[in-house]
Amino acid sequence: MTRRLGGLHVLTDARGGRAALVAVAAAVAAGAPVVQVRAKDCTDRVLYDFATEVLALCAPAGVTCLVNDRVDVALAVGAAGTHLGATDLPVAAARRVAGPGHLIGGTARDPERARQLVAEGADYLGVGPSWPTTTKAGLPDALGPEGIRAVAEAVDVPVIAIGGVTAERVADLVVAGAAGVAVVGAVSAAPDPGAATTELLRALAMAGARTGPPGSGP
């Protein structure tokens, strides 16, 4: 499962249209192991069509494709998994629908919620925002590396840190116990998404080499 999750999750939005697909193609070519389709305020058909195109870019390269929020769309296009937010289907309900082979991620901010999601069947957790970010409105206060650490130490599934992540901040998150990071603007809004992906992957590799396996840092 760790291989399927990878260390870098590149999020893309259906509202970005063709430009978003170009960024995904560049990220995949640069070695991004996971691409997550996020779509806010669009029709089901737009999301389905966009996810289908993203999966077509991911599949030949062996890249894991996840769909944010919508387990029905993830299953319809044949994506590897679904990431669920706090207001989406409960993890246990999504697991009943998707079955045991479908990757399911939950969203947590504290150890108690994290343990609950894992008990319900979450394969990994998205935790954040790590730092303040303008990518998404209405987010709670940033957790910082110590907030990430508190969740990572409470569960035995991979924790993926999100929110305000840059290559320069990766090491702090890995030391805190994050198994990987998820980014939106750091790749999709970069002048060169491929180069940005390479930089993030290099930062993850260097941080991993210094700290050992996720969770083994001080």
From TrEMBL:
It catalyses: 2-(2-carboxy-4-methylthiazol-5-yl)ethyl phosphate + 4-amino-2-methyl-5-(diphosphooxymethyl)pyrimidine + 2 H(+) = thiamine phosphate + CO2 + diphosphate; 2-[(2R,5Z)-2-carboxy-4-methylthiazol-5(2H)-ylidene]ethyl phosphate + 4-amino-2-methyl-5-(diphosphooxymethyl)pyrimidine + 2 H(+) = thiamine phosphate + CO2 + diphosphate; 4-methyl-5-(2-phosphooxyethyl)-thiazole + 4-amino-2-methyl-5-(diphosphooxymethyl)pyrimidine + H(+) = thiamine phosphate + diphosphate. Residues 17-187 form the Thiamine phosphate synthase/TenI domain. Belongs to the thiamine-phosphate synthase family. It is an enzyme of class 2 (transferase). Binds 1 Mg(2+) ion per subunit. This is Thiamine-phosphate synthase. InterPro entries: Aldolase_TIM, ThiamineP_synth_sf, ThiamineP_synth_TenI, TMP_synthase. Keywords: Magnesium, Metal-binding, Thiamine biosynthesis, Transferase. Its EC number is 2.5.1.3. Pfam families: TMP-TENI (PF02581). GO terms for biological process: thiamine biosynthetic process; thiamine diphosphate biosynthetic process. The gene is thiE. Gene3D superfamilies: Aldolase class I (3.20.20.70). Mg(2+) binds at residues 69, 88. GO terms for molecular function: magnesium ion binding; thiamine-phosphate diphosphorylase activity.
